[in-house]
Amino acid sequence: TRTRPDNITEPGFIKIHTDKYLGGGLVDSNAIKVLEVKAGVSAG
Predict the structure, then answer these.
(1) What superkingdom does the record give (predicted)?
(2) Is the predicted pLDDT of residue 1 greater than 50, yes or no?
(3) How does pLDDT run across 3-38, given as a tens digit for each residue?
């Protein structure tokens, strides 16, 4: 369930999951943007 959460869950959940997984403050804004784009494309 933790292998590919970005393709299974919704964009909103991805944000939360990634935030927790990466530690929150140690996440690069670029990485978050990429995840958001991926999530948007996957969901849309």
Answers:
(1) Bacteria
(2) no
(3) 555 555 555 555 555 556 555 555 566 666 776 677
CB 27 within 8 A of CB 14: no
Chain centre to alpha carbon of residue 36: 6
The amino acid occupying position 29 is S
Helices (H), the chain: 5-8, 11-22, 29-43
Say how far residue 27 (Cα) sits from the centre of its chain: 11
Q: Are 14 and 6 in contact (CB under 8 A)?
A: yes
**Boundaries of every domain in the chain:** 6-43
